[in-house]
């Protein structure tokens, strides 16, 4: 459909669902995404990301990690399954004054994964030297945790094919649950999303997947399934700090980790229970502070 048709008619007002989706995209960009800055910085320092780095960001979201790499003079390309987040990433990376690593070429951004035209275009110029997957890879249609991991491994294999021999692929996820205060809040979402286990009642849908594969060796197992070999790992403190309770609830909802809970119950109930779970982490001045540790794995192609 051409844009001419859009201009001939008065635009329809956004539905509540669409307006809510846009609000959550903004909440991610303005509230939640910055919580992972220490992780981005630690990885970039370890890999000496800078001039000469050609970086592909899988699940690049609203582009903060790409922007930080570009500020180090890296040439960046990002892909994501969420078009709203990509639109904000474009706003950030195409703004005047944003560094353009690798010469005059602006950041390349595209919808999808490593199979997208923009990723293949960037790799055709020169193979990537670094691939990052700071967030779970989108796996539409995955019906079980095992299928989701298999699909994620397939995505990483595709990305590795665009990466030079010896290039780095970085996976990241939660650290040990006992060192992540946010785990208590995430359990609320898992509980609400899970069908009630009554006698004789068979579970119809699996509980929602965590931020990334769980278990001590989850990242290593995923890398192995993608044909990558591990080359070191690290842990990074990524505390989640919010100006107040409303900001904390909005930030956590923007992650998408509570979407299944909202579908299984209702948004009002989910907000209520998130708020209750956050109370132990609210300080006397109203701010909310949850210490967390994230883990990353560097794997090689």
UniProtKB/TrEMBL annotation:
UniProt region (Disordered), positions on chain: 1-24
All residue ranges annotated as the Methyltransferase type domain in the record: 56-98
Listed Basic residues bias regions: 1-12
Signal peptide: none
One Pfam family linked to the record: Methyltransf_11
The name this protein goes by in its record: Methyltransferase type 11 domain-containing protein
Organism field: Streptomyces hygroscopicus
């Amino acid at each position: 459909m051409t844009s001419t048709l859009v201009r001939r008619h008065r635009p329809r007002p956004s539905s509540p669902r669409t307006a809510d989706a846009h609000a959550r995209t903004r909440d991610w960009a303005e509230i939640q995404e910055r919580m992972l800055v220490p992780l981005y910085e630690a990885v970039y320092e370890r890999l000496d990301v800078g001039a000469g780095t050609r970086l592909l960001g899988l699940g690049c979201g609203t582009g903060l990690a790409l922007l930080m790499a570009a500020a180090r003079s890296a040439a960046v390309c990002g892909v994501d399954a969420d078009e709203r987040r990509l639109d904000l990433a474009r706003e950030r990376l195409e703004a005047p004054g944003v560094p353009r690593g690798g010469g005059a070429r602006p950041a390349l951004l595209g919808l999808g994964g490593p199979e997208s035209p923009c990723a293949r275009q960037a790799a055709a110029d020169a193979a990537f030297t670094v691939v990052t997957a700071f967030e779970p890879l989108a796996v539409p249609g995955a019906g079980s945790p095992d299928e989701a991991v298999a699909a994620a491994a397939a995505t990483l294999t595709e990305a590795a094919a665009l990466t030079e021999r010896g290039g780095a692929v970085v996976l990241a996820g939660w650290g040990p649950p006992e060192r992540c205060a946010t785990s208590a809040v995430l359990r609320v979402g898992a509980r609400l999303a899970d069908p009630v286990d009554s006698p004789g009642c068979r579970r119809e849908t699996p509980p929602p997947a965590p931020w990334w594969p769980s278990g001590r060796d989850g990242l290593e197992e995923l890398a192995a399934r993608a044909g990558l070999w591990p080359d070191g790992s690290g842990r990074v403190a990524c505390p989640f700090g919010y100006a107040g309770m409303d900001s904390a609830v909005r930030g956590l909802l923007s992650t998408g980790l509570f979407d299944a809970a909202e579908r299984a119950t209702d948004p009002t109930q989910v907000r209520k229970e998130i708020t209750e779970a956050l109370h132990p982490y609210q300080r006397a001045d109203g701010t909310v502070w949850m210490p967390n540790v994230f883990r990353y794995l560097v794997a090689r192609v």
